[in-house]
Predict the 3D structure of the following.
Amino acid sequence: MEIGQSWHKWKEILGDAVGLGERAGMEEETINNAAYRLGDFFANKFDPANNEQRLMKELWDEGNDEERKTLASLMSRVSHKTSYRN
């Protein structure tokens, strides 16, 4: 199964989810934990739909638990900033 052909659309959806969590009063740590769980789910259940997602999966697969948490946190921030620029 593929999750979005467009890297930019995928980041926009993730950014919207982060923004929703913030508006609901979630703390950054809670949002990052949710991003980590989603990243793990996506890495295990979905085929990358583009080169960027393939790179993210490769980094996820190579990373240890702490590195995966860092990657999830960084993706949350990048995607959230991207959604506010549009």
About this structure: The chain is about 80% helix and 0% strand. Helices lie at 7-23, 28-45, 51-62, 65-85. The two ends are 28 Å apart (CA to CA). The chain has a mean pLDDT of 86.
